[in-house]
Structures are given as C-alpha cells and as structure tokens.
What does this fold into?
Amino acid sequence: SALRSRIDQALNNRELEIWYQPVWNDDSGYFRRCEALLRWPGESISIQEVIDAAEESELILRLGEFVVDEVCSFLASVPSHQEDLSVSINISPVQFHYQNLEHLIKSSCERYKLDPKRLMIEITERTTIENAELAGKVLSALKQMGLDLALDDFGTGYSSLSTLHELEIDWIKIDRRFVQDIDTNQNSYQIVNALMRMAQALDIRVIAEGVETDQEYATLRSLGVRMMQGYYHARPMNQQQLLAFLKG
Ligand code: G
Ligand code: G
Ligand code: MN
Ligand code: NA
It folds into this structure.
C-alpha cells in the first residue's frame, strides 16, 4: 500500500523517532520510568494507523527492531546520575509470531552494554489470546533476562486472572477510558476500585493511563493508585526534552 511504502522510506531515512512519556511515582515523588512511543515528526497520520499498516507486513518487524535499538542506545547514553531510568516498549502481537524477540533484546542489550532490567515490555490482551502458548514461552524467557512485564490497555479485553498469573505479569496499565470518566461514571470508578483490589491480592503493580486532571489524580490516589501516566504529569517528549525534564 501507499502508506506501507512511506513507512518503509521513513525507516530507511531515519525519519521516525522515539518519544518518551514519564510515569509519575506518587510514593517516591519522582519520574524514573517512561514509555517509549513511536513518533513521525511532520506527518499528521496517527501512530495507530502506522502500526496497523505495518502489522500487515514484515514492516512491523523492522519497526520493532528500530524501537528496541533506539531505546537501548538512548538508555546506554543517559548520564550516570540517571542510570536508574527505565523504559517500557510496546510489542505487537505479530512480533511474537515472526521475530526472535528474546534474541533481539538480548543482542541489543549486549551491543550497548545495557542491563535488561532497565527495560519493560508492554503487551496487550490481544497477544495473550492470539499467541497464548508461544507468547508465554517468549515472555518467560524475557522475564528470566530480568525484564518486567506489563499488560497494557487493561480492562478493555478478555484477560482472566489465570492469564495474569500464568504469564507472571508484573504490571497492569489501566486503560485510559476508565480514567477519563472516573469522576462522572460510577461504573468506571467501581471498575478501577475492583482492579486495585485484584492487583493487590495478586501482588501486581498498577499504572493508571491518561490522567489529565487534578480531580482524576486525586480520585485515583484515593483508590490507592500510586503510578500515573498522563498529560497531567507529563506529555510524551523527545530524548533531549526528557533529559532536561528529569533534571529540572
Ligand atoms: O502515542 P499514541 O497514543 O499515538 O500511540 C498510539 C498507539 O500506538 C498506542 O496503542 C501505542 O501503544 C502504539 N504504539 C506507540 N509506539 C509503539 C511502538 O513502538 N510499537 C508498537 N507496537 N506500538 C506502539
Ligand atoms: O496503547 P498505549 O497505552 O500504549 O498508548 C498510550 C498512548 O496514550 C500514548 O500514545 C500517548 O500518546 C497517549 N496518552 C498518554 N497520556 C495521555 C493523556 O493524558 N491523554 C490522552 N488523551 N492520551 C494520552
Ligand atoms: Mn503502552
Ligand atoms: Na495503554
């Protein structure tokens, strides 16, 4: 397709960038974790459309390699006083099928002399359904390397308690849609409340996504949420901006 060939060109010309959105930790009062997010400066097309198009071909594998390489190279270069910074990377379900993720991440960490503990993997419920068995094997290898595992967009799909348990999920990221109307919709409020209790019982940590207002922040705190990611605390930013942001 036309879009796929533009993505192909963008990869060749290194037009794509990785931006980083800091995650707020209410306990420490620090940002020490962030999510890597693909960006295409100068293009108005949404990144979701880019990912969807890339997933129809082997382009998603090249994109995936680019993201891992870029993130490892960045983390290896951060100043020594910020060496506790860690980054989570979104992984497409397609990558589990057609890419040796374990090898990709291991070799990239070796190339940049990076401790794999500084990486986290974000998968969606799609991965746990479409490739359950294969994904389980790969994820368990990655966990042995020291990576943390997060289930993204939580609450929108079909993950069961047994999935969380079997895959040894360390984090769940509560989907933005529940945060968005947590102060106006009793259902959303009760769902987040229930998710928090479940996470505590299973010893899984929680990040709330899409926190935009003071009120949402306060409500989430009252429900015991400690980690938050959203425009209220920080927007996605490029490498230079992130380093300045963390310093300031
Ligand atoms: O940042 P934004 O809201 O535009 O991202 C849109 C979607 O694209 C989100 O679902 C996000 O998870 C996904 N996404 C962003 N960066 C990456 C990436 O590097 N790899 C994959 N597979 N998905 C990404
Ligand atoms: O699917 P995933 O959770 O990986 O995507 C996260 C996306 O959410 C990022 O692409 C980011 O741009 C977007 N995002 C992060 N914080 C906010 C927020 O506070 N509001 C909105 N509307 N989007 C956000
Ligand atoms: Mn994500
Ligand atoms: Na998400």
In short: Residues 21, 37, 90, 152-153, 176, 209-212, 229-231, 236 surround guanosine-5'-monophosphate (ligand 2) (CB under 6 Å). The beta strands are 17-25, 30-39, 86-90, 119-123, 148-154, 171-174, 205-209, 227-229. The chain has one domain: 2-247. DSSP finds twelve helices and eight strands in the chain.
